[in-house]
Design brief:
heterodimer; A: 84 residues; alpha+beta; Mth169, Chain: A; three-stranded antiparallel β-sheet; 2 helices; 3 strands; 30% helix; 29% strand; B: 227 residues; alpha/beta; Rossmann fold; nine-stranded mixed β-sheet; 5 helices; 25% helix; globular
Chain lengths: 84, 227
């Protein structure tokens, strides 16, 4: 199996009220140094070895389902895993 | 006029909608399941509110990939009326039938109350029986009704008169430009967060929503006569 990690976050222009609420809480807890928090999503995906165009496939599923390009952006990494 | 009410797993306003269309408006309506392939014989398609697929991933994201949506897109492309309420609006934006998207309410609260709306545009198949500028009372009930689009999209919505309803006195959820409902460029696809199907009888506190469904009927009959 190949493993891919996809990270989805709001575009900078989109307000993230959940992130703002968590930041405010941390400030109240005594961490005023926290300058900004934005909450995103993380997908851990296993893909069959037989797929040859892995990157094209990841981008296609992101664009078609995992990400709403109106409000979100994404990045991904291919994880090299040692077998055994 | 024969309406299809699409039912997804997790839809919960489908029965209210069917009641409004059949018992109050007096027209024909039927449920169409998410896995059906045909909308043949229907004159209008309605996507009800609810929490399709538990709002997993994003509100409406999974529902817009269901089998019936290919047919809804074809129906919309033919210029026939498609109307999404609340979760139905979210599904229409996810499906690309309407621009922009619905974000979590700015307050992070689920908001359930009656709000005042302004009818911005009444030359549409959904609002022709309202007066332009009329202020109406409809309930809202949503956690993600904060309409968002980029500046270019907002400019084109304004230029094409696609902003159909705005929140009249207060903006409950942080929506861009106070937007409560928009149409597509062709005017035959409408999405809105407030629930007109919950305001169709005096018993429900307001009948202002009934005029929307009556407008669909008025427009349909006018088109039928002209053809």
């Amino acid at each position: 199996m190949r493993r891919v990690k996809v990270y989805v976050s709001y575009k900078p222009s989109v307000l993230d009220p959940q992130g703002a609420a968590v930041k405010g809480t941390l400030h109240r807890m005594g961490y005023p140094e926290i300058a900004d928090i934005r909450i995103g999503k993380y997908f851990d995906i296993q893909i069959a070895e037989t797929v040859t165009n892995l990157e094209a496939m990841i981008e296609a599923i992101c664009d078609q389902l995992l990400v709403n390009v109106n409000m979100e952006t994404y990045e991904y990494e291919l994880v090299e895993e040692s077998v055994g | 006029m024969k309406f299809a009410v699409i039912v997804f797993p997790g839809s919960n306003c489908d029965a209210d909608l069917l009641w409004a269309l059949t018992e109050i408006l007096g027209e024909t309506a039927a449920y169409v399941r998410h896995d059906e392939e045909s909308l043949a014989g229907f004159d209008g398609v309605l996507l009800p509110g609810g929490f399709s697929y538990g709002d997993y991933l994003r509100s409406g994201a999974i529902a817009c990939c269901s089998k019936v949506m290919a047919e809804v897109k074809r129906f919309a492309k033919e210029g026939k009326p498609v109307f999404g309420i609340c979760n139905g609006f979210q599904i229409l934006t996810e499906a690309g039938l309407l621009p922009g998207t619905l974000l979590t309410n700015q307050s992070l609260h689920f908001i359930c109350k009656t709000v005042a709306l302004k009818v911005e545009h009444n030359q549409t198949p959904f609002t022709c029986d309202y007066a332009k500028g009329q202020v109406i009372q409809l309930p809202i009930a949503h956690g993600a009704g904060n309409y968002f689009c980029d500046d270019a999209t907002l400019a084109s919505l304004k230029a094409n008169q696609q902003i159909i309803f705005t929140y009249a006195y207060e903006n409950p959820n942080g929506s861009t430009a106070g937007i409560a409902g928009i149409s597509n460029q062709g005017g035959n696809v409408l999405g809105m967060m407030p629930h007109p199907e919950r305001a169709v009888e005096e018993l429900l506190g307001s009948k202002d929503g009934l005029i929307l469904f009556q407008s669909m009927l008025t427009y349909y009959r006018k088109v039928a006569v002209s053809q």
